[in-house]
Amino acid sequence: MLDVRKLRLLRELAHRETIAAVAQALSYTPSAVSQQLTALEREAGVRLLERSGRRVTLTPAAMNLVAHAETILAVLEQAAAELAGTRTELTGTLRIGAFPTAVRTILSPALVALSSNYPRLELMVTELDPVLAPDALRAESLDVALVQDYDYVPVAPDAALDTEPLLEETVYLAALSEDPLMTHAESAWIASTPGTLCHRMTVRACEASGFTPRIRHHADDFGTVLALVAAGQGVALVPELGALACPEDITLTPLKTQRRTQLAYRRGTGNHPGVLAARAALHEAVARRFSTQTEIARSSGHPGGFTRVAPP
C-alpha cells in the first residue's frame, strides 16, 4: 500500500522541483525528504526519480503517480470537510492569504463579518503576492487565498486547487497627462518587484504596444506607486483596487487590460464549513465594494472598472 504522506512529498517535488524546496516548505530536512522518496520507490516497485548529481527529475511513472496523488489527496480533504460539517458550531483556525490592496478593501470587511457570525473561529491572515499563494495552499499553511491573473499574464491551472471567480478590474495607465500607452516608450516607469505578476503584466502590456519599459523605480504598494507618479518620477499601470485613493493631479487612462481575482482553496475543501463561510463573506464584501464604488464613479465621473463576479 502506498503511503499518502510520501505521495504528498512526491506531489510537492513535482511542483517545487528540488528536494531542498520541498523540505523547506513542509518543515522537513532534505535528508528526510530523500529517505521518504526512496522508500516510496521501494513501495511502488518502479523507479520514480532520475538522479544526476544533486539534481532530481521525475520519471514518467512518477508523473502518472502524481496525477493519482492529486485525486487521493482531494478525496481525503473532502472526507475531512464532510466530518467538519457534522459539528454544531464553526470553530478552529481559518488561514486566509491575500494581496495588499485586497486586504484593505475586500478582506477587512469580510473579516468583520466572519468574526461577528462565528466568534469561535480563529482567523489568521497572511499578506502575500498571489504568485506565492498556490504553494502556500498546497503546503496547508493557507486554507483560502486570493489569486490573480492578468491579460498578457495567464496563469496555468493547478491540479491541487479549485478556484472560483471573484472580481474583475480594469487596469489604468497612471500619468500626469492623458496620453495613450504607446506614447510612453521613452518615459520612466514604475513597476512592482521583478518576479511578481504585476511586474510581468507591466512589461508585457508595454511590449504589446511596441516597446520595452524603462523601469526606474520598483514598488509593490500601489499607494507608493501613485505617490511616485504624482512626484513626476514616471508612469505606471495600476489596477482599479490600487487606484481608489488616487491623487487628484494624476490622470487614470483605462486600458483594455483586465485583472481577474479568484478565490482558491485545496481540491476537496470547498464545502468545509470554514471555507464556505470565507467564500460567502468575501463575495459579500466584493458586492458591497462594487455597489459603493459604482456610486462614487457616477457622482465623480471617475471611470469605475469593477465587475463583480457572482458566486457559483
Automatic annotation (TrEMBL):
Record flagged with keyword Transcription: yes
Keywords for the protein's UniProt record, in alphabetical order: Activator, DNA-binding, Transcription, Transcription regulation
Family annotation (SUPFAM superfamilies): Periplasmic binding protein-like II, Winged helix' DNA-binding domain
Gene3D superfamilies, A to Z: Periplasmic binding protein-like II, Winged helix-like DNA-binding domain superfamily/Winged helix DNA-binding domain
Domain of life (superkingdom): Bacteria
PROSITE patterns referenced in this protein's UniProt entry, alphabetically: HTH_LYSR (PS50931)
One Pfam family in the UniProt entry: LysR_substrate
Full protein name: LysR family transcriptional regulator
